[in-house]
Design a protein that fits this description.
With 244 residues, the protein is of the alpha/beta class. The chain contains 9 helices and 10 strands. The strands form 2 sheets. A 6-stranded mixed β-sheet has the order 6-7-8-3-9-10, sandwiched between helices. GO terms for molecular function: ATP binding; ATP hydrolysis activity.
């Protein structure tokens, strides 16, 4: 069966002043696949996914999402593509002045203009059930632990029913047990919603658990690619340094 690329990046380059962050990066994400991108800080991981959704403008290259080159789109066309993509930010990015219910409702209303209050409530509860936190519906972000905030951020991402989810350091700042719970949640989301994902992480346990395939960026260049077990056996000392 032919695999279908839902994301295809060709020769992506991006510089900030004299700092060449990405140098001719090529990658694909197939439908239903979780691709992990590893790399040291400053290697270009987050810039890659920001170029993908047009938050950062690429200097050169082609970025095909749903067979459409996003580098050539006007703002309104780009917003149509973005409406099919969920973005889970590193810090969770919840609105502190809103309850969990209000955070999710705000996102849904912004995304879906004509939606009844009954439908909003139904979708909020379904999204919270997916992350195991339906009891937190009336809590404020300040009342939540770090792991709970990550789960609510994921629920807010899921409520728009995205086809692609971009995870930026989903387990950062969490203890190892909570990190594993978030990694397992990423897997269950992939199975339940048939999402395709890019997961940016430093966390090797998260990479091992979630990644169907792993790419390692080194100073803006894809240095290695393979499954966790393939890369773990690499004879390349720099690649092996991630697995120590």
């Amino acid at each position: 069966m032919e695999t279908k690329a839902i994301i295809s990046i060709k020769n992506l380059s991006k510089s900030f002043g004299d700092n060449e962050v990405l140098k001719d990066v090529n990658l694909t994400v197939n439908k239903g696949e979780d691709l992990v991108i590893l790399g040291r800080s400053g290697s270009g991981k987050s810039v890659t996914i920001k170029c993908l959704v047009g938050l950062v403008e690429a200097d050169k290259g082609e970025i095909l999402v749903f067979d459409t080159d996003v580098t050539k789109l006007k703002d309104n066309e780009l917003n149509e593509i973005r409406s099919r993509i969920g973005f889970m930010f590193q810090n969770g990015a919840l609105y502190d002045s809103m309850s969990v219910r209000q955070n999710l409702a705000f996102t849904l209303k912004h995304h879906t203009k004509e939606v009844s209050d009954e439908e909003i409530e139904k979708q909020i509860i379904e999204a919270l059930e997916s992350v195991g936190l339906e009891d937190a519906i009336d809590k404020m972000p300040a009342e939540l632990s770090g792991g709970m905030r990550k789960r609510i951020a994921l629920a807010r991402t899921l409520i728009i029913q995205p086809e692609i989810i971009l995870y930026d350091e989903p387990t950062s700042g969490l203890d190892s047990i909570t990190s594993r719970e978030i990694s397992e949640l990423i897997l269950s989301v992939q199975k339940k919603y048939k999402t395709s994902s890019i997961i940016i992480t430093h966390d090797m346990a998260c990479a091992k658990l979630t990644g169907n395939r792993i790419m390692i960026l080194n100073e803006g260049v894809i240095h290695a690619e393979g499954t966790y077990s393939e890369l773990e056996k690499s004879t390349d000392e720099w690649v092996r340094s991630f697995f120590i």
